[in-house]
Fold this sequence. Notes:
CATH class of the largest domain: Alpha Beta
Structural class: alpha/beta
Shape: globular
Distance between the termini: 16 Å
CATH architecture of the largest domain: 3-Layer(aba) Sandwich
CATH topology of the largest domain: Rossmann fold
Radius of gyration: 23 Å
Number of helices: 19
Helix content: 25-40%
Largest sheet: 12 strands, mixed
Amino acid sequence: MSTESPDLKIAQAATLRPIEEIAKKLNLTNGEIEHYGRYKAKIPLSYIDEGRVKENNMILVTAITPTPAGEGKTTVSVGLTDGLNRIGKKAVAVLREPSLGPVFGIKGGATGGGYSQLIPMEDINLHFNGDFAAIEKANNLLSALIDNNIYGRSRNLGIDPRTVKWRWAMDMNDRSLRHVITGLGGKKGGFLQESGFNITAASEIMAIMCLAKDLPDLKQRMGNIYVGDTFSGEAIFAKDLNAHGAMAALLKDAIKPNLVQTLEGNPAIIHGGPFANIAQGTNSLIGTKMGLSLSEYVVTEAGFGADLGAEKFFNIKCRAGAISPKAVVLVATVRALKYHGGVKKEDLQKPNIEAVEAGLENLEKHIENIKAFGVPVVVAINRFTSDTEGEMNRIVERCKAHAVEVAQSDGWAKGGAGMEALAEKVVDAAESCEGDFKPTYSLEDTFKEKIKSIAERIYGANKIAYSPSANAILRRAEALGFSHFPVCMAKTQNSFSDDAASYGRPTNFTLNVREVEIAAGAGFIIPITGKMLRMPGLPVIPAAENIDIDEQGNISGLF
């Protein structure tokens, strides 16, 4: 039985253009890129031009609250890039790199789908150019140096191991590694202590690389990582361990954005990959600025629903880089709206206008949130063959009632040709943008005021509850002088609330902040809500079980 997906078949049938041809479209010559084989390259940071960054147009693609039915943000992002190029605009997609956890877990690959894909699809989804591996190694180098200092084999700083929250990292889903004991094996095995693993996409090193301006800034940020305290209560940072130089050395190539192509031969820059439910959920600031330096339009993406990725995109990334999108594309599907309207996954292909109507509450809340940022929004209905005209029309009617432009997205079946109508509306929206975005909160607010603004204005909560541990860490962060940091919420992607089973538009709920982490190098704190975990587990039947490779090196089962 074949396990090949239509997406993989389409990608493997494509004729890839040499990467120097793709570089030419960005006015880069063959000698100005660093080749990683024939179809991939890295772009040196020297090509970032801050003047052009401010002149050109950034388009953010986000979505309604995710469902098992799928929404297709990356497919829309890639298709929109091709569509913009088809209507005469010079456009580049700037997206995140896939994590191996979802690739081998439940989600599969992250290069788009159908005729709106990035290629070489297998290379991008499997290790790519080694960026994730470098981030993982830099993370674990710091872990090793912390342990070595506690053990006393190096200049002992008197670190109290009970205060160390830094965890190991691995780019794979494994629930058994969430909580581990290190130092077993007697005196020569080190200091016995509790630890654990985060998935690499949730590592602070990933967050730092995706917010750093350049290599010196990257090194400085890594030096600012908060490790823990001494027995006398003094804060210890990575620079106190002299760790940041070696960590930065490991990332000397990973910090450079990666150049690949769409199926239609348009350029795509892929760099960084933090998850939006447990990190900031968008590609690197360096990658975005590179795209804006080299192209008239940049189509970028924020992970999961707009309450997560888009909120952090505005309040964290845009602030850090002094950038602002000219328009936001909000992706919805008929199937996802029916799911939010109470329909079971197995019944989503059946026509059900009433369920679409009920599910539109979720879309409306996301529209309200994006409008509050002061940026024009265009709704993209990512079309499936089971969608009926009646269901589609109901979405269009509701969008018009909110004075929001809407267009069908047919990139999966038709590539850029199916995205031209959306591209035209996006250009109109970008040209109508009158200024920069409006943040959800002021950096001068207290941490609890910032969390309250997000919980009430973005999520719709009416109360926030803090555990004693969360309150203690907030006080510690303030005492360390971090009160000006933004907040990076860790919350389930499946609901506006912290209850993954609460679909649609929940109201009158309490947001439960059970833990807080200080990410001083990244420059934010992480309130962890509900049952959110930073190391996912594999599903009952992982995608890995369907992935294979034959004698000729052809991969099957990757989607």
